[in-house]
Amino acid sequence: MRVLFFGDIVARAGRQAVAQVLPDWQKKYSPQLIIG
What we know:
The chain is an alpha+beta fold. It contains one helix and two strands, in the order E-H-E.
């Protein structure tokens, strides 16, 4: 099972950073579960 886990996403800058990289990581790693 592939899991993407993001810990300590803080403030707007953290949410924006994750929102920016998440689509690419979803394509690259094909996770079955994402925890943020």
